[in-house]
Predict the structure.
Amino acid sequence: GAVVSQHPSRVICKSGTSVKIECRSLDFQATTMFWYRQFPKQSLMLMATSNEGSKATYEQGVEKDKFLINHASLTLSTLTVTSAHPEDSSFYICSARDPDYHGTDTQYFGPGTRLTVL
Amino acid sequence: AQTVTQSQPEMSVQEAETVTLSCTYDTSENNYYLFWYKQPPSRQMILVIRQEAYKQQNATENRFSVNFQKAAKSFSLKISDSQLGDTAMYFCAFIPRGGSNYKLTFGKGTLLTVNP
């Protein structure tokens, strides 16, 4: 159980275009999902917290107009990188909180998306 | 604010041997959860083990066990009978229990290499 999918796994786009990444909880309902960015050989950096039916909460320094987050259902959150530039190239990971697993606030992670902006 | 420190950036171990990864944390919370996540070369984050702070018994999952010392704020991971597939980055993480933001605080990670 507790499987989280992420799509696409890799995407290459031109500078100035927008890219949408989907994160789905496959076997549980996730009222809260998270979006992380990870640079090579570094830890995960939290970008934003996505709550179903409400606006996302962004971490300090993250541009909310550039990284649009929508959590329209209990199993789907999307991250849209708008007007992407080469500096947005990175590995993006989503996670979903399983609220019913003994109340342990365990997060399960998607496999990640490698974004390359040319 | 919470902090998580992993003091070993890299470690290596021979196949079939035992290795211990260190993690310390700083918090004023009394109730919380601690986790070890594994990130192999595929970069998929995998939950290895979790510990509830209010439980004195150390968590175990097959070859993985923890040594949780609440007073010392220490949470080390022991891997027994190391296998080549254990080669990965290991992250220690903390979350307060009953918090409203559910954010995980991660350490910087320890890169473990299992040698044949």
Q: What stands out?
A: The CA atoms of residues 3 and 26 of chain A lie 6 Å apart. The mean pLDDT of chain A is 92. Chain A touches chain B at residues 32, 34, 38, 41-44, 46, 49, 57, 91, 93, 95, 97, 104-109, 111-112 (CB under 8 Å). The longest strand of chain A covers residues 90-98.
